[in-house]
Structure formats: structure tokens, C-alpha cells
Amino acid sequence: MKRKIVPLPKEQWKDCVVPIGYTSHAYYDVELLQEEAGFTASFRLKPMETPVVHTPEECDFADRLYADYWENAFAWGVVEDGKLLAAIETCPEEWNNRLRVTELWVSEPLRCQGVGHALMALAKEQARRERRRAVVLETQSCNVNAIGFYLHEGFSLIGFDACCYTNHDIERREVRFEMGWLRERPKAYQPDELTIRPETPEDYFEAEAMTRRAFWNKYQLGCNEHLFLHKLRENADYLPQLSRIAVADGKIVGGIWYSRAVVRGEHGEQPVLTFGPLCVDPDAQGRGVGERLLRETLALAKEAGYAGVVIYGEPTYYPRVGFRTCDHFGITTPDGKNFPAFMAYELIPGALKAGRFYESEVFADLPQEELDVFDQQFPPMEKQHFPGQWS
Question: pTM of the full predicted structure?
Fold first, then answer.
């Protein structure tokens, strides 16, 4: 039976005790040797003369969800009949771009059923989405079962602290181990490995499936961008002459689709461009696909004589290719607002005029009932909450 993993909202689960305990029949013996030429450390697995039992009750400070010192924590868990049976909590380390697992616990009845693996998969997926370079966590040298699980999950020993808990941790056989799962930085596609070309009708379904994978659970549970793409192609505002897909190894790995928009102001109505979706398959992200699509299509848009491009997008990404917040151009949303995710790119210097931005009505025409029917033709994917979603 597959256990359902659900988010554990802070307002409901803050200070919930996580009853972490374990019994160990072995430990990693830590030996430190200081010599004139340097230091030597060794970690040898040895049996315990007497099994060690650690219980939640012996701790001065019980493990709790959403502790105050983890300011941006997020937790998932298995809950049945209102009782917590398993949980994982993560918190970003912004200063070094790592994701820390602050709590991980599976109750005895649920162990060896894949629950721990499923919880850790969520932490790894969060790290991928946020482009964290590693997932890190703390365990103890005497918690050999936990260490074995982490090793099986691809973690390795990245450090230790010989006096974290007391001044005699080595003698007590309870040394803090730091373990980490390091994300490999993908290599950028070489120019001859990636083809940027116009889309054909034969590409439509594959492009929509790729778009669905790229946006799944990104801004909401599931996504609707693939339905938007499907409807955009039938809309009069769609601009196929500027839109492009990226193909690598015979597969569509990215795409950008443009449409007409306007800026209305004292000058009247100025035609501009917008695009959406711009997306890259999760397996190809971080390899330069999005930037290639942007640079090649912005060049096409400039040749076509458009003044600029106005978008709603990720403020940490688009400035890298020259986008600036719309307040630099005197452009606002239809209700007169500005914010970091509202950006523009001027194709002709000084050409963008002040006013209010309006995109095609197709952007708002995505009823849930239509999405549910449209989704049925694609492979099933699990809806899950992640930090940063709008809803």
C-alpha cells in the first residue's frame, strides 16, 4: 500500500514533536591522529558490546517541526487519523545554496515500505527546483541504520564534529556526522547538440507533454501551461513565426511561444510582444536551452521591428539576458501595479512607451473543467506541494 505524503502546514504542525529514537548494535569508531605532517582521521565500523538505545524522552530538547531557528522550513509527512506517522522537514541554507534536511522520521510500522525513500525524494526534488547544489543533513556515528539508509540514497560523509554534543563525543561513540547528496552540475549543450527550429503540427503533442513536465507542481498543484499552449496555437494573437522549439537527441527539450500584446497609454496603443510558456524539460534544465531559445527568438523579434517584449517571469532568471523591471519603462500591469516578476526587454532602444500592459485574453481562458479533461491524454503525474507555490 502506497502511503500518501501530504504537506504539513506550519500553522497546524509547528512544535509537533518528532519522536526520533533508535537502537544500534554497531557504531563507527572515530580515531583522530595529530602528527607533525598533519592530521589523520579514520572511521571504522565496529560492533557494540551492548546495544545502545536512544529514546526521545532522554533528550533535553525534543525534535520538533518548525523550530524557531529554522525560519524557512517546510515539512511533508504521512498522517492517518490525525496522527503523524512519518515526516521530513527541510530548510534552505541561502548563504551557501544548500538544502538542509532538519528532520527525518518514519514510525516503526511504516519502515521498510519505501516511505523514507519517498520523503527523501521530495527533498531532492525541492533541491532540483531551487537549484541547490547539495542536500545535507546531520546524523550520529552510532546511528548505523540511518547512515546505511543515507548511503543507499546517494549521500556520502562530508564532515564530522568531534565535540558537537559533549566534550567527549568520541569516547561516547556518538560523533556528529555531516552527510551530503551533491547535485551534479549538468554540462551545457554544445552548439551542434541542440537544434532550435520552428514547431510543426507533428510536434504539438510532444511539446505539450514537455511543457507539462516542466511546469508540473511549479506554481500550483499540477499545472495548466500545457493547456494554454494548446489553446494559444488556435488564437489570432499567436505568432508562430517567432516561436521556436529546442531539440536534442531527437527529443523536444524546450520551447518558447510568442503572442501579440499591447501597451495602452497617452500615446494610444503600442503593439508589443509577450511570450509564454518558455520552458525546458526537467532533464535538460541547467544546460543553456532556455537562454539559447531566448537569444535566438529575441533576435527574430528585433528583425521584425517590434519595440519590445513584456513578460511575467522569474526575476532571478530573465535579468541575465537583459530584461529589466517594467518601472524602468513606465509600464504597469492593467491595474497600475509593478513588481519584480513584471519585466520588459527593449528591442529598439528608447522605443517602449509608458502605459498599461495587456496580454491576449487566451491567458485567462483556462477553466479547471477543461484542464481536467485535457490532462487525461497524458501520463499520470502526482500532484504535490512544494515551497514557493502560489496555491
Answer: 0.90
